[in-house]
Each structure stands twice: as structure tokens, then as C-alpha cells.
Design brief:
alpha/beta; DNA polymerase, domain 1; TIM Barrel; 2 domains; 10-stranded mixed sheet; two-stranded parallel ribbon; 11 helices; 14 strands; binds S-adenosyl-L-homocysteine
Length: 378
């Protein structure tokens, strides 16, 4: 039997091509695309404005994939972690972070990761495989469904959490979101998104398509450990997406040690690519900086960090290291975090220190492992 095609791997133009190959007009693609992303259709029989004959034909050649969470855990701060079974023995996790009525969803791009950053749990599993475009968008669609049936209650959080791409400078920001809306998507879960660009780029195109998931490109952030040629490609193919770079060290010596990617693309090249990344107007590159106690958390580090990024429109996300088993790094002290934060703030850098949201359910940065055997006790 001929293998059926998963339509969720297609952007709208790709779907047009696919249907054209079957002799169909391009408006059919638009109809099907809207059914999938705006009506969340799971099958062709629902598509009532499409002829029965075409529906039957599509049923023969294509299908619409879906992900259902295998487990959902909710932390005391409202953070929700979703475990998705990919059906081939592998799994990934997504994390929903509701802050003051606004939902940020952190999604995965790979099963495991090849980048081998020394402090990251996902990295210890090596790369198993890339997620498909469908598996990337299906994380969002599954969480949307959960939010509709089970909206989060507003947390009284002071806003020190994962605030990545809120510019706070537009009228839109004044309007409260519906509790079920996803405002920001961050590709900061498991995997290195720029190591899977062939699938990540179409997934982002579906996210920001006005006929697709209808997210604004200013609300989608791609986070990278610093794959320079892929940063250039991302900027060329989706120029308005937000860029976050996990810097984590201010000297090549340390960065080579804790992030092997730096041996291929040292700081100078990485920062040049950040500087040249096409961001519109007032938007800034987010520099993530995982603070490792006694390793990169001194005021000298803060000083070097400032110098490195000062000629790039920037904001800084300080992420106190989240400890995990088998990793010898330690969390920084509160005093070190505060001093580092203050040093930058005093020099007019926009800094957010991320509290470990979801720490109690191992949903914080660097704690995702996506293991099926790790089930929640009911
Ligand atoms: N590969 C991408 C996205 C995934 S990691 C990237 O490197 O940016 C998301 C963020 O979590 C990165 O900034 C990473 O440096 C950080 N991180 C990884 N392990 C961590 C840990 N144990 N504690 C705190 N942050 C961690």
C-alpha cells in the first residue's frame, strides 16, 4: 500500500503543490489548511465545504497527524509540563508557563540533542532524531486544546519569569489575553532548533501564517547555542522571528569547555552573526546566560558580558543553573545572582533573572528529558 502523506508537514504553499499534483486548484489547499489549523480538524470527513469526492480522495492519499499528551504535570506555580509520546518509542516535552494571564509555550525541536552542552540534561541523551514539522506544530495544537478544556488560573507571579519577547511598547500589550490563548512560542525545549532547520522553518511558517496558527512573528523566539551558518539561514528565510542566543560564557576558553559548539563557532563569529541578524526596529537579541555557581557568575564575568554584547541591541536573561543528577555544576548563590543582575541593570541593560518556573515538576530549563517511563503517579 502507498504510504499516506501527513498534511501537517506542509506549509500552505507546500500543500498547494501537493494538491496541484493531484490536479486540484490552489483554493482547495487554503480550505484544507484552514480546517487543519483554525478548526483543528483531525479528519477529512469534517471538512463540510469540500466535496465528498475530494474528501474521499484525500482519505486515500493523506492524513492529519495529531499528538495527545501522555501525561500532564502541573507545578505549584501553574507551570504545566506535557509529555508527548511520538509513537515510535520516543517522547518529547513541552512546558506551558502562564504569567499574569499570558501564556508562553516552550516547545521541543528534537528528541535529545547533539550539542552536548556540559550543564544540560537533554544533551546527555545525545541526538535520537529530529522532530518533523508536524510534531513541532502538534505540540502547540495539543496544548491549545488542553487550555480550552482546562484554562490556567491567573498566577500572582511578580513577572520575573520567562518574559522573552514582550516589548511592552505596543497597544496590544494592554489587552488581556483569553486564558486559553498562547501568546508566545519559544523554541527552548529539548533540542537545538537550528540543528533541525529543515523542519523548524516550515513549522514557524505555519505558526505565523494568518491562515495557519495566526501567531505574530514578534511572539516566536528561536533559541540557539550558536550555530552560526544556520543563524544566517534563519535570518534569511524568516527575517522577523526573535533570536535568543545561549551565551553562557564570556571567554572562548570557558565556552569551549562547557559548550563544544564554541570550538566550531567561537565568540567573535557568534557575536558577529548576532549583530548582523535581521531584526526589525526596536527588537533586540536575547542573550541567555546560565549562571553556574563559581564558574561564570563573578562580576568580572558580568563586565566581560557587557563588553561582548554592547554593540548589539540586547537584553539579557539570567538563568540560575537548575541542578540535576549526574551533573556537578552548582546553582549560583542568591548574592551572586543579585550582584550580576545589578551590575548590568546599573549600566542600563534590560535584564530578567528567570526564576526556576516549574522546578518542582522538573520542567525548568535544562531539566527536560522526555522519557516515557517517567510517568506521573495518578
Ligand atoms: N538548544 C537551544 C534551546 C534549548 S536550551 C539553546 O541552546 O538555546 C534552553 C536554555 O536552557 C538554554 O539557554 C540553555 O543554556 C539553558 N539550560 C540548559 N541546561 C540548563 C540548566 N541545567 N539550568 C539552567 N539552564 C539551562
Amino acid at each position: 500500500m502507498k504510504q499516506k502523506t501527513d498534511l501537517k508537514n506542509f506549509t500552505l504553499p507546500a500543500l498547494e503543490q501537493f494538491l496541484k499534483g493531484q490536479g486540484k486548484e490552489s483554493f482547495r489547499a487554503l480550505q484544507v489548511f484552514k480546517w487543519i489549523y483554525q478548526q483543528d480538524a483531525r479528519g477529512f470527513e469534517e471538512m463540510t465545504n469540500i466535496s465528498k469526492a475530494l474528501r474521499a480522495e484525500l482519505t486515500e492519499t493523506a492524513f492529519i497527524s495529531n499528538l495527545e499528551p501522555e501525561a500532564i504535570e502541573q507545578g505549584s506555580d501553574g507551570t504545566r509540563k506535557y509529555l508527548f509520546n511520538l509513537g515510535d518509542g520516543h517522547a518529547v516535552e513541552s512546558v506551558l508557563i502562564p504569567i499574569e494571564g499570558r501564556n508562553t509555550l516552550c516547545i521541543s525541536s528534537q528528541v535529545g540533542c547533539a550539542m552536548a552542552c556540559e550543564f544540560c540534561l537533554t544533551g546527555t541523551f545525545k541526538l535520537t532524531r529530529n522532530l518533523t514539522t508536524a510534531e513541532i506544530v502538534n505540540q502547540i495544537m495539543a496544548v491549545k486544546r488542553d487550555l480550552i478544556s482546562n484554562p490556567p488560573t491567573t498566577s500572582a507571579d511578580g513577572g520575573a519569569g520567562l518574559v522573552i519577547n514582550d516589548e511592552g511598547d505596543d497597544v496590544e500589550d494592554e489587552c488581556p489575553d483569553s486564558p486559553a490563548a498562547i501568546r508566545n512560542i519559544v523554541l527552548m525545549g529539548m533540542g537545538e532548533p537550528l540543528h533541525n532547520l529543515d523542519n523548524v522553518i516550515p513549522a514557524i511558517q505555519i505558526m505565523i501564517d494568518g491562515n495557519g496558527l495566526q501567531l505574530s512573528n514578534r511572539r516566536v523566539t528561536v533559541s540557539t547555542c550558536g550555530l552560526v551558518p544556520e543563524m544566517v539561514r534563519l535570518g534569511r528565510e524568516i527575517p522577523n522571528v526573535n533570536l535568543a542566543v545561549s551565551l553562557n560564557a564570556t571567554t572562548d576558553e570557558l565556552r569551549n569547555r562547557i559548550m563544544p559548539v564554541n570550538r566550531s563557532y567561537p565568540l567573535k563569529e557568534l557575536l558577529k552573526a548576532c549583530k548582523e541578524f535581521p531584526l526589525p526596529g526596536r527588537r533586540k537579541v536575547t542573550f541567555e546566560y546560565v549562571m553556574l555557581g563559581g564558574v561564570n557568575d563573578s562580576l568580572d564575568d558580568a563586565k566581560r558580558l557587557l563588553k561582548l554584547i554592547s554593540d548589539i541591541p540586547n537584553k539579557v536573561n539570567l538563568i540560575p543553573f537548575n541542578e540535576h543528577e549526574g551533573c556537578d555544576f552548582k546553582a549560583p548563590t542568591r548574592a551572586a545572582i543579585d550582584a550580576f543582575h545589578k551590575y548590568l541593570i546599573d549600566r542600563h541593560v534590560t535584564v530578567i533573572t528567570r526564576d526556576s518556573r516549574g522546578g518542582d515538576i522538573s520542567a525548568a530549563c535544562g531539566q527536560l528529558k522526555g522519557k516515557l517511563e517517567k510517568k506521573v503517579a495518578a
